[in-house]
Design brief:
The protein is 47% helix and 14% strand. By secondary structure, the chain is of the alpha/beta class. The longest helix is centred in the N-terminal third of the chain and has 32 residues, at 111-142.
Amino acid sequence: MSKCVLIADDQAEVREWVADILRELGRATVETGRADQVLPLIQEMGDALSMVLLDLDFGQGQMGGMDALRQVREAGCQIPVVILTGKGSVRAAVEALKAGATDFIEKDAHVEDTLAAALSRVERFAQVVAENRRLREELRGVQEIVGESPAMREVLAQIERLGPVPRPVLVVGERGTGKELVARALHENSPRREGPFIAVNCAAIPDGLLECELFGQEENAFDGAPFKEGRFDRADGGTLFLDEVGNMGPEFQRKILRAIEYHSFERVQGTETIRVDVRVIAATNADLQAAIRQGAFRADLYDRLAFDTIRIPPIRERTEDIDSLARHFARRFHEEVAGVPVLEFTDAALTAMRAAPWPGNVRELKNFVERLATRLSEPRVEAAHVNSFLQPGGQAAAASSADPGVGPFASRVEAFEHSLLTTALDAAGGNRRKAAAALELSYDQLRRLLAKHHIGSP
């Protein structure tokens, strides 16, 4: 292998011993006896290094291995760091794992075997990281945030500024504005980009089940229930996105506040306190300040979530972005669906689209463009096409008829259903459970109807 392993240990005989083992395993080495040289060497050597073997104790008055590890991680370096430890410091090594170490090995007679196994694990880890990086690059091309308006430039500037800050962010905006896309962009612009991004829709899960979903449950927490790992567990080292956070009940808000404040929680029916390193990003389309005044949302939870706030403007405040958004969605749909042409929008068509109010915002515009692509016989889009596919008031029609009262029976039923669903969602402020109750439907019935009519996140 051309890549080197950095050995950091204050004892020269240990460095020599480990270096001999690594050379027998076909690895080149670089050595240092000082912990404060670890980060500079990593930065100097860059991709030439594949792994760091780091001792924890460098002697009195010297920087320790734990501080060096924290330095490396705070600098955003994702290189695998394996702790070298004596038998008496295994507990400290476990603490180092929690701080970002990849693995640890003991300095004993079996070190050659354990070192070979650690190298194998690290190389598999490197392959996974490389694959994740490749997938992220692909996703960036597909899920980029589109918009050159002053309002969107401000959002992008906030993402760039807040991404590296290890504090919660509250993303606010009307339904369909792209709150999860902004949350993912914050994650990708943070030192946690190599870690998981875990999303949960708080509006879709009742509080009783939400506690199990977020914190997990011990085996037999309920009759015959299996052990379940929670979303906080799965997000360890990464980002947890809490969508529609305003739908949490007051009692559960107290529990989530403690988990965010202390980075710890207990599983349902568990007694062990689980500690995690998770950045929380929350989103809502509700007026949380009004909810606080009404006693429906805790002020202390709001203060914790809103270290800073990103407001995503609705389309009516960024109509100059409609041209680029429409072309972007048309191109993306062409890439996703074989045989679908790339739509070509005339100036008159884009003018008609800019004049529509789009109450469903980017999500509605995306669905509208995709319907155009599947229903037009040619790729050129004229203003007449836009107007005929829009319902009165600007909502994109679910059926080919612009009016639920005109056209074949099946199309009229489809259009009427779509109108009922979107009207109920608007009246409920995007809260699906409230919309289901208003329509006297079960939540599952509403969810199926929304999927049927393609009313959902882009």
